[in-house]
Amino acid sequence: MTPRLSITDVSYRAGTTAILDGVSLDAGAGELIALMGRNGAGKSTLLDIVAGLRPATGGAVALDGEPLDRLDNAERARRIGHLPQAVRADVPFSAWELVMMGRYPHADRWFESKADRAAVEIAMQRTGCAAFRDRPVSTLSGGERQRVLLAACLAQEPRLLLLDEPSTFLDVDQQLHCFSLLREETRRGATCVAVTHDLNLALTFATRLVVLAERRVALDVTPGAAFEAPEWLRLFSSRLRLCDDGAGGRWVSFA
Amino acid sequence: MSHPAAPRAWLVGSAVAFVAGAVFFPLVGPMPLDLGAVLAHREPEWSILWQLRVSRTLLGLFAGGALSLAGSVFQAMLREALATPYTLGVSTSASLGAVIVIALGGHTVLGVPAVWMGALAGAAAVLFLVLGSAARPGRMSAFGLLLIGIATNSVCSAAILLIHGFAGLSQSFSIARWLLGSIDAIGYGALVPFVVLVAGIALWILRHARHWNLLAVGEDWASARGTPVSRLLLGGYVAGSALAASTVALTGPIGFVGLIVPHLARSRVGADHRLLMPCAFLMGGVLLAGGDAIGRSVLAPAEIPAGALMALIGGPYLVWLVRRRG
Questions:
Q1: Which residues contact A32 (CB under 8 A, 6 or more apart)?
Q2: Three-state SS across B59-119?
Q3: β pairing state of A250-254 and B108-109
Q4: Which residue of B has its CA nearest to A152?
Q5: What is the pLDDT of residue B300?
Q6: Which of B103, B98, B100, B112 is nearest to B244 (CA)?
Q7: Which residues of A touch B1 (CB under 8 A)?
Q8: Which residue of A88, A94, A156 is in closest CB contact with B218?
Q9: If DSSP codes are grouped into helix, strand and coil, which group holds residue B132?
Q10: CA A27 – CA A63 distance, rounded (Å)
């Protein structure tokens, strides 16, 4: 069976600096991949390449067996959602209008249909944005804005959801809620790739951990395997330990 | 509430105002028109109305609309409130082209006033220059376009000053008059192609309203939601420049409409370009044609050029708008 997402030997150079060099990764339906790595490891770059926002300098990306560059923009947008790290702070739209933009790739009429409005409504309910749906995005707090962006991605209903640090600015409860939502999406058949720096969120919710280091994939394991062999923590810092409370609770702590 | 009633009411209202302006502004002027004489096709009333006032009103409506729409496109593309045909260097380079022609004493080329040719050539030259230096293999940088526009402005303004200074007395007067920017009666032979051109470009711009919404958030945001970003930025830049240059060619530089009206429209109907752009076009037309109707009446027989009037009203209005928002 062809995987939902297939990244083969992808490289990216910015000028003379190699950012990614020979990255390969397959992801199937139902997977929630936590894409991790230190600052500058190329996580966002890889996400951008898969989202079609910038071309790789080498290698290939395929979606359901189809090369990414063979999809036109609208088709790509119907299949792939991308949550950016941030949007400009002075966006002139209301929260509702911004979430509605997730429906643009699906709508072929001048104004959106009733079904589009329903999808927006549901996405805003799920992310807890309904309370500030009519407020200008520019007046929202960082966390509220982040939830609006997530709602826009959910309303887009893509098969492949790429999220660049979706839990930034969120309070702890909202971080948990955010990753629960991503798990829900994957249970419905979507594939999620989420960049995160939070190892505990990743170990709790992801079905796979992928760590980028030295311009390539340094680790690609399930959370279970990650707990068995914790040496990989050194990819992040030498001051991390795995703790176990004996009752099934396990987490990464700082030494 | 996806689209509250108020924005749509503004759209309908500005459409009504546009049509009403087309009907009633021609009746305004230094010489009151006797409606009975006009309806009986008596001279000179009929000619004054048809040859002078109607063509002048239509020019004002479409020139104002074109400038506002150009401003809206540039502001959406560059995500910059100050992006206008002026800040991007289009209007000033068109003006330089026209001023060169006036200084050389050119009159008509193949039946077309040479000043128009000069304005279009000036804008086209800068358009190619800007696209040549801003276009990179991947995409155009909005910030780069703005910087190049600023550089273009300073060069063109200096050149205009120099030419103005060295020109003979009568040319110097013509240049000063032209630089004020004004709506004048023009023949239908020039008006009809202008209206067709503006309407065609406006329809292309409106058709992509959703893409302007996405671009107003960000280029990656737009690309991830289906916008062919490079193509739209190039198209929008050429379309906005064509609107501004062909307007400047007929009216001289009329600056403030392209800056104020998009802001005014956004504060009334919101940022959704599907409503904002038609509104900006219609309101810009009414504002400029209405301003011209006032300008030709209040000090009759003297006329206040529409460009000067717009700047006199528009500057304080913009400051008020900014202060009110804090």
A1: A179, A182, A183, A186, A192, A194, A205, A206, A207, A208
A2: HHHHHHHHHHHHHHHHHHHHCCCCCCCCCCCHHHHHHHHHHHHHHCCCCEECCEEHHHHHH
A3: unpaired
A4: B225
A5: 75
A6: B98
A7: 96, 134
A8: A88
A9: helix
A10: 10
Residue type, A64: D
Selected residues 65-104 of chain A with any CB under 8 Å from a CB in chain B: 73-74, 76-78, 80-82, 84, 87-88, 91-94, 96-98, 100-102, 104
Q: Tell me which amino acid residue B95 is.
A: S
pTM, entire model? 0.91
Among chain B residues, the shortest Cα distance to A76 is held by: B226
List pLDDT tens digits, range B16-47: 999 999 999 998 888 777 777 877 888 888 88
Residues from chain B that touch A76, judged by Cβ atoms under 8 A, are 226
At what angle are helices B55-78 and B229-251 packed, to 10 degrees?
150
**Measured between alpha carbons, how far is B38 from B48 in angstroms, rounded to an integer?**
9
Separation of alpha carbons A51 and B167, rounded Å: 58
Structure confidence by residue, pLDDT tens digits, A191-215:
999 999 999 999 999 999 999 999 9
Tell me the one-letter amino acid at B248.
Answer: V
A180's CB contacts (< 8 A; 6+ apart) are: A205
Going along chain B from its start, the domains and CATH numbers come out as 5-325 (1.10.3470.10)
Q: Which residue has the tokens 């206040």?
A: B304
Residue with tokens 């989202």: A51
Helix (H) or strand (E) holding A35: strand A32-37
Q: Which helix (H) or strand (E) holds A151?
A: helix A142-155
Q: Which residues of A touch B270 (CB under 8 A)?
A: 92-94, 97
Q: What is the mean pLDDT of chain B?
A: 86
CA atoms within 13 A on the CB side of B192: 3
Q: What is the largest CA-CA distance in chain B?
A: 64
User: Burial level of A183, CB count in 10 A (0-12/13-18/19+)?
Assistant: middle
Paired tokens of B191: 């008006």
Provide the H-helix boundaries in chain B.
5-24, 35-39, 45-47, 55-78, 90-103, 114-134, 142-166, 169-180, 188-207, 209-217, 219-223, 229-251, 256-269, 273-295, 306-325
Nearest to A134 by CA among A93, A167, A106, A169: A93
Topology of the domain comprising A5-254: Rossmann fold (3.40.50)
